[in-house]
Amino acid sequence: MIGEINILIVATVLLLLYAAWSDFRLWKIPNAIVLALTAVYGLHAALQLLTAEDVGAALLSSNGIAGDLVSGVLLFILGFTFWSFRLFGAGDAKLFLPIGFFVGWHAMLPFSFFLLIGGILALLALKLPMPLQFAHYAVIMRVQEIRATRKIPYGVIMVAAALAVIALRPAGA
Fold first, then answer.
1. Crossing angle between the packed helical segments 31-51 and 90-103, to the nearest 10 degrees
2. What's the sign of the alpha-carbon dihedral 98, 58, 114, 170?
3. Rounded distance, CA 112 to CA 75, Å?
4. CA distance 154 to 93
5. pLDDT tens digit string along 77-125?
6. Burial class of residue 158, CB neighbours in 10 A (0-12, 13-18, 19+)
7. For the whole model, what pTM was predicted?
């Protein structure tokens, strides 16, 4: 079971990193990534149910599958609301669903905190001047392009916050 969980964690991290990279490079989060993350969570939930001593608690408790689903739907509604007011892209709104699944109900506060910190760091990166000696790096040139367009790849901030919460989660949780 530990091997399966590790494979799911690695798959989740890789998919989240790809979503962040895609958003940073193209301002697009592919639907296939959102679906793959949702499928990985589905496998994780099935594995939880198959190995649980108390299936009811694993399914219906706030720190079980029900809490994960509630946090995913809550974040999706928040993302959809932001999208409807043109504050978010559609990919960012959709990405909130699987991120909420993996974050879970009990980690929503730390996730919100990391999201705030990530937003502040992104704001600083976009507002502070870049040293000229780094201006030729591709990442810095992309940041300059983002500055010029004023379109922020929020998926990068969301993924960073989600990865921070996943990294701080106790083993086996």
1. 10
2. negative
3. 11
4. 10
5. 999 999 999 999 999 999 999 999 999 999 999 999 999 999 999 999 8
6. buried
7. 0.90
